[in-house]
Amino acid sequence: KAGVTQTPRYLIKTRGQQVTLSCSPISGHRSVSWYQQTPGQGLQFLFEYFSETQRNKGNFPGRFSGRQFSNSRSEMNVSTLELGDSALYLCASSPGEVYTDTQYFGPGTRLTVL
Amino acid sequence: AQSVAQPEDQVNVAEGNPLTVKCTYSVSGNPYLFWYVQYPNRGLQFLLKYITGDNLVKGSYGFEAEFNKSQTSFHLKKPSALVSDSALYFCAVPEDTGRRALTFGSGTRLQVQP
């Protein structure tokens, strides 16, 4: 089975722009979660989707949003980019609704904001 | 909220020697604990998890973890370290009962010297 794929792998934007990141989960997985990884804050949960519905949201401003499509693919959007949004954005998928299911991570999208 | 702590920023071990990466937890109710590894410029790879049952959990790449309820610890171990084990290791726990969002420790960098 193919793993979680994320596109693009690298992205450079300037302050004020917006960006969309894409995640394709493992085939058959219906839950997708997003995390932000920075040297200062570590790994932080952004949001989780299951069956096209946002189930949980982390403590991030409203500039961060996401959605999930009927094929379980997910996108996250960051508007009005700030320098502090530079990070590795990780997507993870898991099979179903059980919260103890293992989350399998993609390689991440490295976002640099100039 | 549930949390994990990794008390060591870095662990150095010689190739062939046993390794231990420490993790302590704070949870309400039954603990569900995970270990992930991150190689440079990569996402997180799942190693193992504790849900219930045996206190010694076996995982990928020869790793195992020992769950200790009295010490609230879930240390990652390997009998014989390889240079290729050098990476960043994270333990994680669901941030709250019933929530899939994972809370991660700060990470421990493992350096295996030849």
Structure summary:
The complex is a heterodimer of chains A (114) and B (114). Chain A contains no helices and 11 strands.
Topology, please?
The complex is a heterodimer of chains A (114) and B (114).
Chain A: E1 5-7, E2 10-13, E3 19-24, E4 31-38, E5 42-50, E6 53-57, E7 64-68, E8 74-78, E9 87-94, E10 104-105, E11 109-113
Chain B: E1 3-5, E2 10-14, E3 19-21, E4 24-26, E5 33-38, E6 44-50, E7 56-58, E8 64-68, E9 73-78, E10 87-94, E11 102-104, E12 108-113
Parallel strand pairs in B: 2-12
Antiparallel strand pairs in B: 1-4, 3-9, 5-6, 5-10, 7-8, 8-9, 10-11, 10-12
What does this structure look like?
The complex is a heterodimer of chains A (114) and B (114). With 114 residues, chain A is mainly beta. In chain A, 0% of the residues lie in helices and 53% in strands. Chain A is built from no helices and eleven strands. Chain B has 114 residues and is mainly beta. In chain B, strands 2, 5, 6, 10, 11 and 12 form a six-stranded mixed sheet that branches. Chain B has a four-stranded antiparallel sheet with strand order 3-9-8-7, with no helix packed on it. In chain B, β8 and β9 (73-78) form a beta hairpin. Chain B is globular. The model of chain B has no long low-confidence stretch (mean pLDDT 94). Chains A and B meet through β4, β5, β9 and β10 of A and β6, β10 and β11 of B.
Supply the key terms.
heterodimer, A: 114 residues, mainly beta, seven-stranded mixed β-sheet, four-stranded antiparallel β-sheet, 11 strands, 0% helix, globular, B: 114 residues, six-stranded mixed β-sheet, 12 strands
Ends distance of chain B: 41 Å
* Whole-number mean pLDDT of chain B: 94
Assign the structural class of chain A, choosing from mainly alpha, mainly beta, alpha/beta, alpha+beta, or little secondary structure. mainly beta
Give a count of the beta strands of chain B, DSSP E runs of length 2 or more.
12
Helix tally of chain B equals 0
Structural class, judged by helices and strands of chain B? mainly beta
**If you compute it from the alpha carbons, what radius of gyration of chain B comes out, rounded to the nearest whole angstrom?**
13 Å
What's the order of the H and E elements of chain B?
EEEEEEEEEEEE
Please identify the oligomeric state.
heterodimer
Shape of chain B: globular
Which percent range fits the helix content of chain A? under 10%
> What proportion of the residues of chain B is helical, as a percent range?
under 10%
The major β-sheet of chain A equals: 7 strands, mixed
pLDDT < 50 stretches of chain A: none
Mean pLDDT of chain A: 95
